[in-house]
Design brief:
The structure is a homodimer.
Chain A lengths: L3 E2 L2 E4 L12 E4 L3 E2 L10 E9 L27 E11 L9 E7 L3 E4 L2 H8 L5 E2 L17 H13 L7 E4 L7 H10 L3 E6 L2 H9 L4 E4 L5 H8 L2 E6 L3 H9 L1 E9 L25 E2 L14 E2 L3 E4 L2 H22 L5 E6 L4 H10 L5 E5 L11 E2 L2
Parallel strand pairs in A: 10-11, 10-13, 11-12, 13-14, 14-17, 18-19, 18-20
Antiparallel strand pairs in A: 1-4, 2-3, 5-6, 5-8, 5-19, 6-7, 7-9, 15-16
Pfam family, one (chains A, B): ADH_N_2
Keywords (chains A, B): Oxidoreductase
Protein name (chains A, B): NAD(P)-binding protein
Chain lengths: ~375, ~375
């Protein structure tokens, strides 16, 4: 078979503020012969879908600047989570025709050499051969069944300590993680308050089961939470003033799951919003005020916990349960997956910029192969 | 016996910023006959020592203003934690001559009616008859053995999850709680970094066992923590820029115990310092950067937990262990108690103002009876 194009996306410009059309560049500068390319004991994968996630904004910095994740190298192929079909395999116990999930370069075809050793080395982020008993679209594995779904599920499992009847507040509630948080929280019989960035997204949050939803751009966040709170659990996807309002309206012994702070990702530290009321984490609260055998009134102390959450920390404990549960709910429609698809690697810059602007609803995903894009059980919003 | 004076302290002025000499007023407007006063089934107590604590700043607001603790009533007798001697008792199983700890009015003598019922009603804050097997000065029970000591002990017990060899950072390290945190942390074989507000306090922190101590007024906090960190545990007594620097220098899976934020207590919310880097709670960190089978580098995710801490939440679990352990350490000198004593109820305003200005070292305590002021095993700093 002849050489065919192996298109890819490189990182091409460090954005000053929000990413734009220059951030990534689509290139058709590589070829591959998929029948003869040397596998070196590994596998050849055709990538079907790639995930765009807000955390990637952190990687768009000068490579010499210290940071929390490795910077994208200038003119290097971008990397992120993807799902692919195994075209050929020399790997141990890995069959051609199977599907695989993991950290991948943004290209059409990729060879992963020495697969088994690699899986070990990459621990939680390693490539994983997928099983799909309900025949869900493969791109679900970078969304509802990938980092987004697992973040929602693990976050609500342990850190949040959900108690039936308590009140959960979720921000970015129509986003990749948020819209799943709403639905899982309702399955846990929590009361759900949702904040979103548009009236359309508010309507979606209500359709997905939120008991109350509001548009943070046109509402007083603290007032909404005062009226419908106090909050026992806050699932934070945005940070900034919303976090401050949530702290202000936290119930005693509230649990805050800090999942992301997308409102802050384009800011330099000096421009970032400062949360001014953290001392309330160890605040004192009145429980009863009627006691008066002398002038003192009766009160109790309370505390609030705020914990950073990243799914890989919890996958070892809950991954099996997740895959035993959520695919079934997605297949039955008990949980609806909302995604915003972009077609082809060439849409990477636009898709990422729109995601950070809040113009996408649900999970942002790049579909490389039309076959996986059928919204069989999913709900497509575009 | 004739009537004798029963001096008291009332709340007399709501401070705009820091409390001052007008905040409290000492009055000699009440008399009591301690032999004949009606006990109504309760007990008559002579108060020996009273505790001044930064949390009391929250109570100095207009009474109609909602807040986290009941406001001090204007011209009402101030209340706080105290220790007293039982002069007479009609209470069930409570003997005259014993000593008692709990929430008390700032006066010389007080009658607590219907003692047993009251104890029940006040739950965690109730009066408690004391046992003192090591003959420690009674005022220790409002300090090293009271809220301060228990806060240090419980905070380091559970929330902090201390692991031998890890690094703890404590702010206000020569304060009521901080100086005990240093010593308990050293018993747990932690490396201790301490920040204080003067060079004298730095010297004290080092004498108490801190591995490194610095004066935050003349140092770059973040630079100090970068050099001696990263931090696995942060015991926060101050909030503000120190908290921000600690977040910046947190190790993976760090635990932040939010005990108090004294730097913020005089501020209105709008003037409060905003912590700008909370998104780092769910930051990503590089563990190894050598992996390069394609352009990706290997990293792992990490999280940081921040939890409000108030001792009453933990007393049910650890109080017995605390009283089995700490009095013995105090008696043997394994833990040194540092306190700053003021004599007489008339010193309340001055003592409180000095405490919030950082002019006291260790625990601030008002001594009403000279007999309990002997620094038998304690170290007195004034």
């Amino acid at each position: 078979m002849p050489q065919i194009l192996n298109p890819r996306v490189v990182f091409s410009s460090i954005p000053e503020g929000p990413p734009d059309a220059e951030t990534f560049t689509y290139l058709e500068d590589e070829n591959i012969d998929i029948e003869t390319v040397d596998l070196d004991g590994g596998i050849l994968v055709e990538i079907l879908a790639l995930s765009l996630d807000p955390y990637m904004r952190n990687r768009m910095r000068p490579i010499e600047e210290p940071g929390d994740m490795p910077a994208f190298g200038m003119n290097d192929t971008v990397t992120g989570f993807g799902v692919g079909r195994i075209l050929r395999s020399e790997g141990d116990g890995i069959e051609a025709g199977g599907h695989i999930y993991g950290f991948m370069p943004f290209k059409k075809f990729v060879v992963f050499p020495t697969t088994t050793a690699m899986s070990l080395e990459m621990s939680g982020l390693g490539l994983k051969v997928l099983s799909n008993p309900y025949g869900l679209p493969w791109h679900y594995f970078v969304g509802a069944l990938g980092m987004s779904g697992q973040t929602a599920y693990y976050g609500l499992k342990d850190l949040a300590s959900p108690i039936s009847g308590q009140t959960l507040f979720v921000s970015a509630a129509s986003g990749a993680v948020g819209h799943l948080v709403i639905q899982i929280a309702k399955l846990q019989k929590l009361k759900v308050i949702a904040s979103c960035g548009s009236d359309e997204k508010v309507a979606l949050a209500l359709r997905l089961g939120a008991d109350h939803a509001f548009n943070y751009r046109s509402s007083n966040i603290s007032e909404e939470l005062r009226r419908h709170g106090p909050i026992d659990i806050y699932f934070d996807n945005v940070g900034g003033p919303t976090l401050e309002a949530a702290i202000e309206n936290a119930n005693m012994h509230a649990r805050f799951v800090i999942c992301g702070m997308v409102s802050q990702y384009n800011s330099k530290l000096s421009d970032s919003y400062g949360v001014r009321n953290l001392w309330l984490l160890s605040r004192y609260r009145i429980r009863r005020v009627s006691y008066s055998w002398y002038t003192a009134k009766l009160y109790i102390f309370c505390t609030c916990r705020m914990e950073g959450m990243v799914m890989t920390d919890w996958a070892p404990k809950y991954e099996k349960e997740f895959f035993d549960t959520i695919p079934r709910y997605l297949a039955s429609g008990a949980i609806k997956y909302v995604f915003h698809e972009y077609k082809g690697l060439e849409s990477t810059s636009l898709a990422f910029a729109n995601m950070l602007k809040g113009e996408n609803t649900g999970k942002t995903v790049i579909i490389l192969d039309e076959d996986v894009a059928r919204p069989a059980q999913g709900q497509k919003e575009q």
